[in-house]
């Protein structure tokens, strides 16, 4: 195997290091590009830009493949981990595009190459500081929307949504209830639920498929989700299920809010889910992206030991090495194809408002902001 | 906020404003007091404009009379602000902004919350102050460090590229890593959570903390330097605002014939001066159309409205509110009055209007609102139907004499004043500066108010 592109090495280090793991993808991408500049031996602006474009393309391609990394597991066997399997590369693209635009602008501003390069680096480090400041700004402008005694339905694991809800609960001392969708397949919602619970927010965790039921029955007051990327038409790309949630909210007349930092605004104009850049969801190499496991969790009673329901479980005949879970896997024949989209696109008509660090925006304001930048 | 009790004469905290005026400017203080009393008593509809033709008499008894001339209240507010900030001794833009915010809080507490327009004009004046203060950055700032130089250079270049990278937040200003993107939101209650975030994000950054160096500086540094020309330019801005208010109806009514066509049937709800004048303006231009007026129970402003329209020779029909749906099928256009236009393009209108808007949607009848720009409120309907709403005495629903009835006295009566109408039910807002779709309102907000002034008065 050839040595990976240094940008990929940087990105994987970012994604694997516990301290930097939860840095938003666009910011991580910008950091990688900054170190690309530091490494660069280009002598001209054109050369530098070409290197940056290459690094950007390589990263996007890496994300499209789900972010495969070779690691060794506990038993010392080489396995492939997919770091970005449940992410959309749009998040990455928005970061790199923004940065490339910035470099172009900087080169117009400062024709001298070395001066420009050092200035880009100096200012670039500020970029990296954005994410927390932006998140904080969103939290303080949008927490007004969280009303005392309300019930909020949320989906996916978004650091912005978490910051917003935690602020409302801990700083502003509002009492409200959060209902979190589980967030298959990475249980992002369940992880978020722990955060809310630790902050003392009454939290209910439900299956993704219960969204319609719970939204109608508990009379939720609002839906609040994060975003991987925000399209020019005001629609958002987010964890799969957001689209369905948008439809549910619209049908029930519940406001649907999206919290996202403005660096997630992307110059793309999808009209529906078919327009999303293709995600290789399947059959790259059998095990590869068929990451999703279909598990009969109801029969599995937790401690891995076989229980009475085991006998009914005709399909799981691969009770193998003893981890316990395997025998509850539904053994699927090859003829059933599995599709596992990590993200979906929710068109602007389902979105009431976007909470961004540029303020609370209507979906139509997104294109305005993008045009002002990329005109 | 630390209120300095030792020196009541300083203008550093909005909550000091009342005391500051009292000690230093008793005359202006008396003006403010008078205004507040009138505001509390809801007297504005019957004071100065009683002599004006077209003023609605006999309605002054009710505090919530639709068609009460909001423009008058707005004008009086601007006059008051002019009278207060004109002669008083503030020195810097920051002090003036503090004074204005303090005034806003005062008026809000005195019942201004019922009239969002009061807060709106104050915010507009604050925007004018910021604008003027930013206009010429004082030259005495000799010790500019490199970072600032770069900022200036950036601004220079990007103005060439016609990108606004000013002090407003935008993607472009973020691209240039302007300090406002990295520094914290200026006004937040301090708490552990924030402090932690603050220390995290500020990190070891240098050169960016000029904005928020000691926490108390909520305005950019050059707002704290003395500006003698500021008074003149702010007074000019206020004068402009006054003339805009004077021409308000003229500018709205110029558009009347664009929206009201010959032979159309227009439905309107209850009483509104703006709508009334709008319809009359169309009639004055020889348009023949029919108006259906919903009576607007329980205040029945529609009756007055119908009378006034009929006097102007307009073919007018009054229906009871419950007949709205039945009549909607034959209506060509719905014209709604506004109490306030919200940041998302939604509308606060007389209670019952939401029903009219829904009936219009069901029948695909366009809904047009008529409102002066001073009704544009930089706030979102956080509270749904409770937004900017008020529950008032049920005397208009039920006669008090009936309350002696032991059964009736157990009955609860709810009498909300307003309705919130979501933006998707509205097709067009007609204002004194033109017609706008609800989805465009956010841009008008950016033109009229500074985002740091959005914060509600309290």
From TrEMBL, chain A:
Residues 303-322 are annotated as: Disordered. It is found in: Cytoplasm, Cytosol. SUPFAM superfamilies: NagB/RpiA/CoA transferase-like. Keywords: Cytoplasm, Initiation factor, Protein biosynthesis. GO terms for molecular function: translation initiation factor activity. GO terms for cellular component: cytosol. It comes from the Eukaryota. Belongs to the eIF-2B alpha/beta/delta subunits family. Component of the translation initiation factor 2B (eIF2B) complex which is a heterodecamer of two sets of five different subunits: alpha, beta, gamma, delta and epsilon. Subunits alpha, beta and delta comprise a regulatory subcomplex and subunits epsilon and gamma comprise a catalytic subcomplex. Within the complex, the hexameric regulatory complex resides at the center, with the two heterodimeric catalytic subcomplexes bound on opposite sides. This is Translation initiation factor eIF2B subunit alpha. It comes from Cyclotella atomus.
TrEMBL record, chain B:
InterPro entries: eIF2B_beta_subunit, IF-2B-related, IF_2B-like_C, NagB/RpiA_transferase-like. Keywords: Coiled coil, Cytoplasm, Initiation factor, Protein biosynthesis. It comes from the Eukaryota. One of its GO terms (molecular function) is translation initiation factor activity. Its main location: cytoplasm. Signal peptide: none annotated. One of its GO terms (cellular component) is cytosol. It is found in: Cytoplasm, Cytosol. It holds the Pfam family IF-2B. The keyword Cytoplasm applies. Residues 231-258 form a coiled coil. Component of the translation initiation factor 2B (eIF2B) complex which is a heterodecamer of two sets of five different subunits: alpha, beta, gamma, delta and epsilon. Subunits alpha, beta and delta comprise a regulatory subcomplex and subunits epsilon and gamma comprise a catalytic subcomplex. Within the complex, the hexameric regulatory complex resides at the center, with the two heterodimeric catalytic subcomplexes bound on opposite sides. PANTHER family: TRANSLATION INITIATION FACTOR EIF-2B SUBUNIT BETA. Belongs to the eIF-2B alpha/beta/delta subunits family. This is Translation initiation factor eIF2B subunit beta. It comes from Cyclotella atomus.
